[in-house]
Amino acid sequence: MFPTIKGIALPLASTVAGLALTTTTALADDGITPVPVKVFVGSMFEIGDNSGDRAGEFQHWYESYWQDAEPVEVHGASHDLYCNDAGVCGSVLGMGKVASSSSMQAILLDPRYDFSDTWFILSGVAGTPPSQGTIGMVSWGSWLVDYDLGHRWAPQEGEPGEPVFQPRKGYEDIRVYQLNPQLVERAMALSKDTPLEDSDSAQQYRQRYPDEMARRAPFVRTGTHMTGDTFFHGPGLSAEAQYMTELYGADDYVITEMEAAAITQVIDRLHGTDRIMSLRGAVNFDQGNPDETTQQHLDPAPGNTAGGFAETVANIELVGSHVVDDIVEHWDQWQDGVPTQE
């Protein structure tokens, strides 16, 4: 059976984009104008409800922007979409490359919404090397690097001490993205002085690490965000991540996460990358301290976890909301591009 729109049969070979275009035409014929979206915030998971219980990545955003919004089901997305009257929309996209990017594509192709001028914030928790960050830190991504899309081999099968990764040809356009430098600079200017939350448990945990950066109180910074479905861990793989950023000409690796490069690839196909922001808060270090093995750090004994999760998810929204609110309040300056800093 062929799919139909308003009784018109469509060939099975029609592309999704063509289907969305036809649906948009149908909506226009009915006098329905797509809702213009000024800001879209995508989180990757929520622990329970959107409000009133232990907060995951989405709850603080929801409580700030969508308490009164009706949930909208988007076909093909993993969770409902929420939009407020100011043109700020958001959704939980799902964890990992496939779940998050497929949800993002479903939302972007929904003809009820116009994303042609949208600013995107890809938001969530992450890890950080102790030489570059600390628990509770929040980072705006300057570059996104895909941890995969290459060749790897066992260390014993290569030269001792040499990297065990090399890029695979054919992925040059999707393995690394430089995000709009003017946008990153503007986001930092708006949010760098945000007072961030901290906890006693996180403060105590930091002291296990000798790195000056790891012992710092939470702060806001920029740097490369490394995207990989594999939860790579330990000083060796952390060094490999840094090697990859240098190989690709990116900034220092400061964040390990699972989704941003994949979501960016989807947005890029339809709207480019100039309006994409990657915003991550560090809830763990990507390696153990000098007194524990990598396995011990991955499976800590009771009382040896990092702490600071609740404070970090709060910090992400505290930092990101400065940018969201500025975009909405000064839309006449933001609609056509990043405003010139005063």
Explain the layout of strands and helices:
Elements: E1 4-5, E2 8-9, H1 16-29, E3 35-36, E4 39-43, H2 59-65, E5 81-83, E6 88-92, H3 97-108, E7 113-114, E8 119-128, E9 138-146, E10 150-152, E11 165-167, E12 176-178, H4 181-191, H5 200-206, E13 220-227, H6 235-248, E14 253-257, H7 260-271, E15 276-285, H8 294-298, H9 309-329, H10 331-334
Parallel strand pairs: 3-7, 4-6, 4-8, 8-15, 9-13, 13-14
Antiparallel strand pairs: 1-2, 5-6, 9-12, 9-15, 10-11
Helix pairs in contact: 3-7, 4-9
Brief account:
The chain is built from 10 helices and 15 strands. The protein is an alpha/beta fold and 342 residues long.
Return the string of H and E elements.
EEHEEHEEHEEEEEEHHEHEHEHHH
Helix content: 25-40%
Radius of gyration: 21 Å
Describe the biggest sheet? 9 strands, mixed
Named CATH architecture of the domain at 123-329: 3-Layer(aba) Sandwich
| Contiguous runs where pLDDT drops below 50 for at least 5 residues | 1-26
Shape: globular
Mean pLDDT: 91
How much of the sequence lies in strands comes to 15-25%
Strand tally, please?
15
Classify the secondary structure makeup into a structural class: alpha/beta
Which features does this protein show?
globular, 31% helix, alpha/beta, 15 strands, Rossmann fold, single chain, nine-stranded mixed sheet, two-stranded antiparallel sheet, 342 residues
Explained architecture:
It contains 10 helices and 15 strands. 31% of the residues lie in helices and 21% in strands. The chain has helices at residues 16-29, 59-65, 97-108, 181-191, 200-206, 235-248, 260-271, 294-298, 309-329, 331-334, and strands at residues 4-5, 8-9, 35-36, 39-43, 81-83, 88-92, 113-114, 119-128, 138-146, 150-152, 165-167, 176-178, 220-227, 253-257, 276-285. Residues 1-26 have low confidence and may be disordered. The protein is α/β, with parallel strands linked by helices. β1 and β2 form a beta hairpin. The termini are far apart. Strands 4, 5, 6, 8, 9, 12, 13, 14 and 15 form a 9-stranded mixed beta sheet that branches. A two-stranded antiparallel sheet has the order 1-2. It has a two-stranded parallel ribbon with strand order 3-7. The protein has a domain at 123-329: Rossmann fold (3-Layer(aba) Sandwich), CATH 3.40.50.
